[in-house]
Amino acid sequence: MLNPLLNLSSYQFIPFENIRAEHIQPAIDTIIAENQNALNEILSTTNYPTFENLIWPLEVMDSKLNEVWATVSHLDSVMNSTDFHAAYQGALSTITLYQTERGQHEKLYQAVLTISKNPEFVQLNAAQQKIVDNTLRDFKLSGIALSPDAQNHFKQLSVELSELESQFEQNILEATQAWSLLIVDKTQLIGLPDSALEFAREQAKERQEEGWLLTLDYPSYHAVMTYLENRTIRETVYQAYVTRASAEFPAGASWDNSEVMVRILQIREELSHMLGFDHYVDYALSVRMLKKATDVNAFLENVRNQAKKMADQEMIELKNFAAEDCGIAALAVWDIAYVSEKMRQTQLGVCETTLRQYFSVENVLAGLFAIVYRLYGIVVKEIAEFDQWHGSIRLFEAYDANNQLRGIFYIDLYVRPNKRGGAWVNAARDRLKQLDGKIQIPMIYIVTNFSKATEEMPALLTHDEVVTLFHEFGHCLHGIFSLVDYPSISGLQGVPWDAVELPSQLMENWCWEEEALNLITKHYQTGQILPEAYVKKLKASKVFQVGLYLARQLEFALFDMEIHMKTAEEHAVYIQETVEHVRRKTAAIDVPAFNRFQNSFSHIFAGGYAAGYYSYLWSEVLSADSFDLFKEKGLIFDKEVAQRFLAIILEQGGSKDFMDMFMEFRGQAPNVEALLRQYHFCKNPVKTGVDFIAQV
């Protein structure tokens, strides 16, 4: 049988239905061998290395391997099974070793160094120069300067680290699936919306149970914590959720990530020291917009100083409301979402259950595509026939104003067993100019975990889920709009981690504006758009409990920074102590001692945000400042601003220094006050940019 992974480029769309676990290792082995042979031939036959005869062919061969690995990684995330994950895990070690060895390839390093010193280097365009510079930087970060023995140790540590990060994520998935709570008495579920009840009933039916099944999948967890009146069940579900993959987990400690976290941190620190960095934070920031830990910490402290007082005041108000309106004398953490929703309904007249009826998936998608058309002239067309990894998957093509195909994207919206939780975007294929001049069109995966349609009603989204979808689609636009011909700096690739959230967070702004809401809302029964009075209430709710929101984000970001600045000896002792230390600075309410959120904090232990979770808040600065430019023009659909953002940010990928790109678009340095104004911490608009360091 032919291995479909070996011929992905020959398919218009990826043949998911033909891919099996047994295809993975042979495909990876074959492509790596081909790439190594091709590289050896280039290096042995080329006397004068150039971009055209070395770097460009490397981009092409790396693209083939990356496409296969992206396909395998994607399927492991969305259709996880024992045999497939075992094959994935085995191939992960192979590919990590190969990539590390490539980063320590002395002859290749010298060839690239020669290109950088050639007189012709200055004649390369900016993107080509950026690739050469990035490649030399990555050689140093892969240990090219180490002794042979040290390089071998570096490789061993790198392989072990990749395996541990994968194990961390797998433990969360298996723990999440291991716990459920079957409710047979419907009176215990008072308060749950009909949609959540129907979802729980269908979850039970899928497991051949009678009643209503509550799980730790986010749609189920969110509904319980936000609406369920039964406080005991809320506490039970909360405890299970925040102890996943820990020794405190009610379903058992088989998936405990405690030792995995310690070893991940120890390896990261050791690798950093081998490369000459004081700690992992310095290593991580070496490829970011913000280059110094002092810059990041100053930024976070600036926001914390603004947010902490507001968070404390909001918590006092919430406790008072809980006592007076909900009969809860001593507010606990498992009451916060429930009481907050009651308070939001009472004070602002915003009811999430009511809002949800206006956000059917079909209308939201149609409105989203209409918004993108008005901003960028992009027309989205759905493809009916293609290979799916699951029956609910949808596929779309995006065409520009000249009717040129710019990109393809898959959407996987709904929660299901054996699918990793959360929401994310990955590139299936990056834009690439083949050696024969043909252009490979970008292809993107958009994945979320929303509640699916039931027998009673279509798939409906909360407004938070609408924001999530817009956020991920912003990432998608960054991928499919790229006009950079080299995959390593095309789309999201090569973009600093603390800048990559700008396009996604910018897209969120249209979820709050009346002109855009008119495009994405339609009551699933009456067809009515969201009434103007409700739009005003929704906009007012954007800053509802913003202090508590920022306090939570700061808790994540400060924990991430602090834990990655500790020594190897401290990691084994201080993970929980670091969590508690950060909470004393940020939290507005006591958190139970059993809480082990860090054991499922996949962003920093498995998802690439290590020493980088601050990126979400930093990117909010960039997005708030960028959206201010639309508001200064007076139009949220201002085509001149949108086209500038398209040409300067989206189409350029990682081909230029991102700070330079941002300043070219905005006309000023990132303005922290834009974020503070967005959350009503400061009232007066600031029209001129201020240097970041001066602001903090």
Shape: globular
**Percent helix among the residues?**
55-70%
CATH superfamily of the largest domain: Neurolysin, domain 3
Work out the strand percent. 5-15%
Strand order of the main beta sheet, please? 3-4-5-9-6
Number of helices: 27
Radius of gyration: 25 Å
Helix/strand structural class:
alpha+beta
In total, how many domains does the architecture comprise? 4
List keywords for this structure.
696 residues; alpha+beta; Glutathione S-transferase Yfyf (Class Pi), Chain A, domain 2; Neurolysin, domain 3; 4 domains; two-stranded antiparallel ribbon; 27 helices; 9 strands; 7% strand; disordered C terminus
In short:
This protein is 56% helix and 7% strand. The chain is an alpha+beta fold and 696 residues long.
Would you mind describing this structure in some detail?
It is a single chain. With 696 residues, the protein is of the alpha+beta class. It has four domains: 137 residues, Endopeptidase. Chain P, domain 1 (Glutathione S-transferase Yfyf (Class Pi), Chain A, domain 2, Up-down Bundle); 64 residues, no CATH class; 226 residues, Neurolysin, domain 3; 169 residues, Neurolysin, domain 3 (Orthogonal Bundle). The chain is 56% helix and 7% strand. It has 27 helices and nine strands. The strands form three sheets. A five-stranded mixed beta sheet has the order 3-4-5-9-6, with helices on both faces. A two-stranded antiparallel sheet has the order 1-2. It has a two-stranded antiparallel ribbon with strand order 7-8. Strand 4 and strand 5 form a beta hairpin. Helix 15 crosses helix 18, helix 16 crosses helix 17 and helix 20 packs antiparallel against helix 21. It is globular and about 80 Å long.
